[in-house]
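Sequence, structure tokens reproduced for reference:
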Amino acid sequence: MGMFMESVSIALHALYANKLRSILTMLGIIIGVGAVITMVAVGMGVRQQVTNSIASLGSNMLIIRPGTSLSGGLRGAAGSRTTLKYEDALAIQKKVKEAQYVSPAVHGSAQLVNGNQNWNTGIQGVTPAYMMIRDLKVSNGSFFTEKDLTGRSRVAIIGTTVSANLFGEDNPVGKTIRVSNQPFRIIGVLESKGQSGVGQDQDDVVLIPLTTAMDRLLAITYVHMIYVQVTNQDEMPAAQEHIETLLRQRHHLVGEKENDFQVQNLTSLMNTLNETTTMLTLFLGSIAAISLLVGGIGIMNIMMVSVTERTREIGIRKALGATFRNIMTQFLIESVVIGVIGGFIGIALGIGIAMAIAQFGGFQTVITVAPILLSFSFSVGIGLFFGIYPARKAALLDPIEALRYE
């Protein structure tokens, strides 16, 4: 053990004697480790954002949209987007046992007026079940009821952004606003949900009963989408199949006729996106790892120079009784120390850059232990691997030839 510590001490002295050269050698390792940690943190951040943005929509959710899957519901014929009816949603609620909550929805935009304040925002016509599906909470007041739905009541629930813009600090509950020139009584304010993963303000919204929106505001007889929350994760495929079968029957689609609706499964979408972002993270990490390899070649290069420079010193040691193993150990420790110190500085650099990106770049980064440990052990391993050849070369020198070397 004493001999080992002696070797470490000699190695550190040798590195300290050539400070600039040692730092330049470490640079490859520092950049490599730092880059791996930063890249993986960015990749994991992207993954986290994707997960959060889908989770904020609601869990175990299926979204049914009109239009064929080929047209994406957008490029289909003019009539293809009016295929979903309110009755379809009622039928799903009644006949699909896996469907826990069902809320058909329509959306539009309107100008809201309160006295001399006005604000343009998105209006959503929904049913009381929408609150459960989207996990919404009312911080003030209450949500509308089935009675409001059947009575086509002019009541509204507003998001915090709308409340702040129309009422400032005042409590809006009980007050009346004009929505597209029609009076609506505010019965509740939603709890803030903040920005969605795609940068949309989720609090800039007005919710009104579906029937009120369809008949009084938009004058339409169809719904834009149907949200379905499934009882649990495992029943998602069965629910999707049952909904498709039911809607095909209701829309009289027989044989090979294509669906005039799409059922989107958010969980499978999330899994696909997660796989994609994991691949992206691995790709970014492996590109960064190449610079670690370059750093290792740098270590080998400098250690070879070091062996040549210190041929005489090696000869004296051998003449004084140093064994093959002693010399080998000493040079190996030198290269491993470069890897270790470079690794530590690289870890600090990588975490620092990842935090700076999160702080100033407005981009979420996720720092985890795995890439830190992996890149650090890689840097030590590289120091060891690329140090073996120069160390062996030093240990095999003939002492008599080495002493003669000038």
Remarks:
- DSSP finds 13 helices and ten strands in the chain.
- Residues 42 and 365 are 5 Å apart (CA to CA).
- Residues 71-80 have pLDDT under 50 and may be disordered.
